[in-house]
Amino acid sequence: MSTPKLSSLIVENQDSMAGRDAAVVLNPDTYLAGAPFDALARLRAHAPVHPMQLSGLPTTWLLTRHSDVRLVSRDSETFASSTGNTLVKVEAAPTSAMLPGIDPPRHVHYRKLINQGFTARNVLRLEPRMRQVARDIVANIVDKGEFDAVTDISAEISLQVIADILGVPAEDRMNVFRWSNAIGSLGIEDPDYAPTPEALGQAAAEMFAYCGELVAHRQKHGLTDDILSALLAAEVDGDRLNRDQLNEFFLLLAIAGNETTRNTLSHGILALSEHPDQQATLARDRDAVQPAVEELLRWATPVMHFRRTVTRDVVIRGQHIPAGDWVLMHYLSANRDEDVFERAAEFDISRPDADHVAFGGGGVHFCLGAQLARLELRVMLEELYPCVPGLTVTGRPTGCGPRSSTGSSGCRVRWAEFRRRWGPRRIDPLRFKVVGRHFRGSGVNQAQAV
């Protein structure tokens, strides 16, 4: 089906301040100049559960408070995902394993299967290679002096890590990047980034065909140690993922792993460039990195909003919401909720509270790759700022009018100095330690099973 643009989904009840604020929040052009935090703050204060009439769609209730996002996220019986999670009406195929778009009990079954590829052991074993990628990125930007934080850092580590996870050979990685960008750009109105329906269909077809080639190679020559192989071997109650389901998961991981971590890191680099004192803290204090990761996730909120369909009449904050209506959980707003976060509008890597909803509000749809994303962000911060302190933005970041995710297509930065932190190193894969002349440390947090 064709995908309507958000600007064509006219908000019909704009005769109130809340209606006008909701229209601003849903207009992708708004985000080209930055997120509408003032409008979101007014909605949280005066209309936290606000009904919107969108052309051709059910009444949609915009939820902007943290507790309401949590409530909806954790009640999959009342708030269903099977009709889609964006402002497009879809129905999940009966055999689909695409986790964001299916409900229990099917979701529970497939989550058990897919979790086998994301055990703590599988996540932790990625760190040595991830750290090497991060160091190569740092070496590359040092040679450039001035560079683009999105393309040279954020997009690069996201691509390399996801390719490693999926077992994609080096020569094929740019194809995966191109396909995931095209499919992940669904709904973007910026003509430089929005795919045509033909390009979108071709990208999906090519990605599925490529996944089939990877699967066939492993079936013929034996499984390897990547997550795709783990999923091929995964079994629950005698059931395994079929080829279509493997294709779906390959697509999901390629898009989510590429786009969300890239956007979080890009926003984080920009925020840190505006807070040189916090950059300096990261450069000298390794213990500051983990809370910084959580603040980056809160601040960036890579997925802006998801929707659910109401399955039975429900009341939220005194508002009666009938079955069949939609609710739109605005994660970006929830992560600036003043009732939850002290000084919510301030960026602070020492923030003691990390109750953000960057990975969703809990429940069955909590992000499968949360620990993987945290590891990737931590490793990049650990390698970047001690070596290249004093990063400053030299040009205005460029946005791309996202539909349900926050993004930037470019951000020029330069570094003040380079500090070499490591010499020749060896990696002990059994202990996951990196050892070098000038650098020594495990840098491993115990990842939790997803």
From TrEMBL:
Any Pfam family matching the protein: p450
Molecular function per GO: cholest-4-en-3-one 26-monooxygenase activity; heme binding; iron ion binding; steroid hydroxylase activity
Gene3D superfamilies hit by this protein: Cytochrome P450
Record InterPro entries: Cyt_P450, Cyt_P450_B, Cyt_P450_sf
Organism encoding this protein: Mycobacterium kansasii
GO biological process entries: cholesterol catabolic process
Family named by the database record: Belongs to the cytochrome P450 family.
Cofactor: heme
Protein name: Putative cytochrome P450
Keywords: Heme, Iron, Metal-binding, Monooxygenase, Oxidoreductase
